Amino acid sequence: MAKKEKPNANPTDTKEQVSWRERFAALGNLPAFFKLVWEVSPGLFLGNAVLRLIRAAIPAATLYIGKLIIDQVVALSKNQTTDDTNYIWWLVAAEFGLAILSTGLGRAVALMDGLLGDLFANKISIRLMEHAATLDLEQFEDATFYDKLERARRQSSGRTALLSGVFGQVQELISVGFLAAGLAVYNPWLLLLILVAVTPSFIGDNYFNQRSYSLSRSWTPERRELDYLRFIGASDETAKEVKIFGLSEFLIDRFKSLSWEYFLKNRALAISRAGWGVLLTALGTAGYYGAYVWIVMRAVKGQISLGDLTFLAGSFRQVRGSLEGILLQFSSLTQEAIYLQDLFDYFAIEPSIHSPATSRPFPHPIREGFVFENVGFKYTNSERWALRNLSFTLQAGEKLALVGENGAGKTTLVKLLARLYDPAEGRILLDGYDLREYDLMEVRRNIGVIFQDYTRFKMSAGVNIAVGDIDERTNQPRIEASAQRSLADTVIAKLEGGYEQQLGRSFGKGVELSGGEWQKVALGRAYMRDAQLIILDEPTAALDARAEYEVFQRFGKLTDGKSSVIISHRFSTVRMADRILVLENGTLLEIGSHYELLEKDGRYAELFGLQARGYQ
Ligand SMILES: Nc1ncnc2c1ncn2[C@@H]1O[C@H](COP(=O)(O)OP(=O)(O)OP(=O)(O)O)[C@@H](O)[C@H]1O
């Protein structure tokens, strides 16, 4: 089995240890976290806090009533009177009441935790989506970004544990405070003994929490790959090719080797944690019994009452348990807080493509057009220039076709026009001003692009067209007119549910369309929006010859007066454009009308001739 290389660009992702300082620093995230929780529901937040506070006083009160009962029983066994019996029953009733109250409060707190947790998970998921919408396309193409996103996504459901953790912690601390006060009255040294008893297991737990966080963090890319393998191994999108090419064994083997490697690392950690855990807890138990011996001896000598004995022994046991819990929780709390750091790190990612502080009004209509001035662009994960030294003008109202071999840079040029990326060199001007000076949303609103790898939304046919201008999704006449222009109306007429018909097989009674049918639907998006520049990136590749001819007839008429850019490998389409720009290896080779370029007898003439001969 091939050894897996870890694709980690960020050195902090691979480091195995998280220092104490980092752990304490991570606690600094708690206020921001609580602010988020508070915003989810102030009522639930406050209610939770108050109920937990009340519950914190119950253990000490119960133990104290227990002590009173025992002392009273002992007194009664020596000297019985009816009045005293009544007093005992009152005490028993009070203890019973406290027990009921404690259970009731416990349930109420758990309920509030659950509700708050659900609301919080929703809120974080929404914020994740909102933030993703602001980020650059380039950021989505970066593997380390995905690791961050993945870690952040895991925060949305798991972080409520932190919420009840911190609340529980405070509740326990108050409980311990009451109990410790009782112990201190008898002997303050008992408290010191307890602290010494719980320290070893605290240190041990901290150490192991730290290691398990580091392991889980450094394995984020692999865990993402595992999720991906699980998805492609069992999904409607991939089932066809998995079957035809017999890929399941290959995928399962890869999953097995990767998940086994992770399991082994986790197992090693879990075993050593369990071993050390036994040893360190035994030390704590020894401390507890030391104190117990001291308390029993004092009772035997008659220095304390039987009730005192049970109260002290009970308090001691509870304080030790609670302290152990608090320290343990504290260590997982710092761990949770470190995970929170991932969430806030993700939220802190800033897009580099945004609107200027004060933007220039977008021209209506565009007068001069777009000018590329020496534009160069390189993808971040690539050394090669995808576009270089590109200078040309797309005049207002002009129909431009982009031609070039695979990988020549056509789609990249279009992405620059729509400001999905900014040029690394040179600039793009719109009516004389840098495209970056205009409001980003205005630029996007005025430029409609249908990409070759358009998305097949598993939603209704109507919505699949309306995504071209989602604000108009209830404007049925507009959706239908767009469908008519892109020939999607003929596809939709055949669907049982019409525009309401669910597309794709993922949900309910979804219907799958053919490649060309999907393309007609997606093409409808271009007509939904009243854009001044319409860009179609290989829009007809899947259409039959008749449909393609008709689409372009309509496109020509409908974009009259508007600018358009068409990318196509079919010269029957390309020749209809006013001018054709031929790209090669990211640079401009030729530009001119169909006839000019044929006359020039350069690359365009050559490619055109090749295709024409194929039809003869
Ligand atoms: N997201 C990306 N990250 C890195 N490199 C990319 C990315 N997208 C494209 N490239 C590279 O940039 C170059 C230009 O790609 P582009 O998609 O613009 O070509 P194209 O002319 O549209 O090709 P095609 O005709 O195959 O659609 C190619 O070499 C490609 O490998």
TrEMBL record:
Mode of membrane association = Multi-pass membrane protein
One Pfam family recorded for the sequence: ABC_tran
Report a single Gene Ontology molecular function: ATP binding
Gene3D superfamilies from the xrefs?
A: ABC transporter type 1, transmembrane domain (1.20.1560.10), P-loop containing nucleotide triphosphate hydrolases (3.40.50.300)
Which compartments does it reside in?
Cell membrane
Family annotation (SUPFAM superfamilies): ABC transporter transmembrane region, P-loop containing nucleoside triphosphate hydrolases
GO CC terms in record: plasma membrane
Presence of the UniProt keyword Membrane in the record = yes
> What is this protein called in UniProt?
ATP-binding cassette, subfamily B
* Native source species: Spirosoma endophyticum
Q: What is the lineage of its organism?
A: Bacteria, Pseudomonadati, Bacteroidota, Cytophagia, Cytophagales
